[in-house]
Automatic annotation (TrEMBL):
Membrane-crossing residue ranges in chain numbering: none
Translocase among keywords: no
Organism field: Streptomyces camelliae
Positions of the Tyr recombinase domain: 178-357
Presence of the UniProt keyword Glycosyltransferase in the record: no
Lineage, uppermost ranks: Bacteria, Bacillati, Actinomycetota, Actinomycetes, Kitasatosporales
Keywords attached to this entry: DNA integration, DNA recombination, DNA-binding
Matches recorded under SUPFAM superfamilies: DNA breaking-rejoining enzymes (SSF56349)
Protein name: Tyrosine-type recombinase/integrase
InterPro entries (alphabetical): DNA_brk_join_enz, Integrase-like_cat_sf, Integrase_catalytic, Integrase_recombinase_N, Integrase_SAM-like_N, Tyrosine_recombinase_XerCD
Gene3D superfamilies associated with the record: 1.10.150.130, Intergrase catalytic core
């Protein structure tokens, strides 16, 4: 459950409503290591499944053995997860069948292999902590398996080098290497044309041109936007470091149109959030609100793209752009080229992809105007010039009043 306390953002409670002490200690260790609240919630969901399983088999957490861990690993791969709410939102089609428009396979009724692997890692770290502290079992129910690979593990290890930490668990499933999937240009134009508001057009334009994560863009404030240099400052998901990221000029134009709509309706200043809800009373836009917005747009065109696909699309555009080098497309500690490996085959889209996606476009100039023209909101040259003058006049006025 969410507490609203920054020092204890989430808490795992039992059937009587009391906090589970060993999990609370584990959460404090995560926060002390600099983990974000979203990480604590993700780990808590894995521990909640494990606690419910132990309650069903009537085994205390500190008496769990590797037999219980083995049974749990079998159960989580075979069970059907509760998804009543999500089932109502998704279009009616066979489970696991590919989308006729995008070619993406719909989620199955059970947990994904990545979820199972994440759960195994969390359980192993949880029991490692309590084993070292002397408050848990001496043997970890989720052990490592050094001999899982074919042949001897680390048979060709260099004796002069240190041993790398072994991360393969005994009950960890093998994960296939997924092909990064990006949105083709013609489909992006269709999707952009279906956006109903300037706020949605601005957010999509920033995502497709900057390549930042969805949660990173949602959290920016008014002081994080620099239209003069075409930069936005985002807080990175992993390191929590603030970094300036370039974006396209079209994205700042759509942002200015959105800000003009909210003029006099929301508080002014440097600290208020940039994105708000469309309905009154205006509240800060959350990740779940943006995700739901993208789901509604997908439903109108029969697609099932995700917000993370926009990040892959930005990486694909930058890799194809001959004017950008690999050092110019850095996203945090990694590069977009490494996230979107050029050696991997490109996922073939569904309908319409056989004709090709057309010539590559620069990531700094996304196809936002093409979508606006299809939706009847085309920016004429005169209107674009007036909008840009309004943007830079506002900046000049702010600097002159300081």
């Amino acid at each position: 459950m969410e507490t609203g306390d920054r020092y204890e953002p989430y808490r795992l409670v039992d059937a009587d409503g009391a906090a589970v002490a060993p999990v609370a200690v584990f959460f404090q260790e995560l926060l002390a290591a600099g983990k974000a609240a979203a990480t604590v919630r993700s780990y808590g969901m894995d521990l909640l499944r494990w606690w419910r399983f132990l309650q069903a088999v009537e085994v205390p957490w500190d008496r769990a053995t590797r037999v219980d861990a083995r049974d749990f690993s079998c159960w989580i791969q075979l069970t059907v997860k509760p998804r009543a709410t999500m089932a109502k939102r998704r279009p009616a089609r066979a489970v696991g069948a590919p989308n006729p428009e995008t070619g993406k396979t719909s989620p199955g009724p059970g947990y994904a292999p990545s979820t199972v692997a994440h759960s195994e890692t969390v359980m192993r770290r949880f029991y490692d902590l309590h084993r070292d502290a002397g408050s848990g079992p001496l043997l970890n129910p989720f052990p490592l398996d050094l001999a899982r690979r074919s042949g001897a593990a680390h048979a060709h290890h260099n004796p002069s080098e240190a041993w790398a930490p072994e991360r393969t668990g005994r009950y960890r499933p093998t994960l296939p290497r997924r092909i990064p999937r990006s949105i083709p240009d013609e489909w992006f134009n269709t999707l952009f044309a279906a956006l109903p508001s300037n706020r949605d057009r601005a957010t999509i334009a920033f995502w497709i041109s900057s390549g930042v994560r969805a949660s990173e863009l949602i959290g920016i404030r008014q002081c994080d936007v620099d239209p003069g240099q075409q930069l936005i400052s985002v807080v990175r998901k992993g390191s929590r470091a603030r970094q300036q990221v370039p974006a396209s000029a079209d994205a700042f134009v759509w942002l200015r149109l959105y800000q003009q709509e909210l003029h006099g309706l929301v508080p002014r200043g440097r600290t208020p959030p940039v994105w708000c809800t469309l309905r009154r009373p205006f509240q800060p836009l959350t990740y779940h609100g943006a995700h739901r917005m993208f789901e509604r747009v997908n439903a109108t065109i029969g697609a099932d793209w995700t917000l993370h696909d926009l990040r892959h699309s930005a990486a694909a555009r930058m890799v194809r752009d001959p004017a950008l080098t690999l050092t110019d497309v850095a996203v945090g500690p990694r590069t977009r080229a490494s996230d979107h490996d050029r050696d991997l085959p490109r996922a073939a889209p569904g309908r319409g992809r056989g004709r090709g996606a057309g010539p590559p476009r620069s990531a700094g100039r996304p196809t936002c105007r093409a979508g606006a023209a299809a939706s009847g909101n085309r920016l004429r040259p005169g209107r674009l010039g007036r909008t840009l003058r309004a943007v830079f006049m506002t900046i000049t006025t702010k600097h002159s009043t300081r």
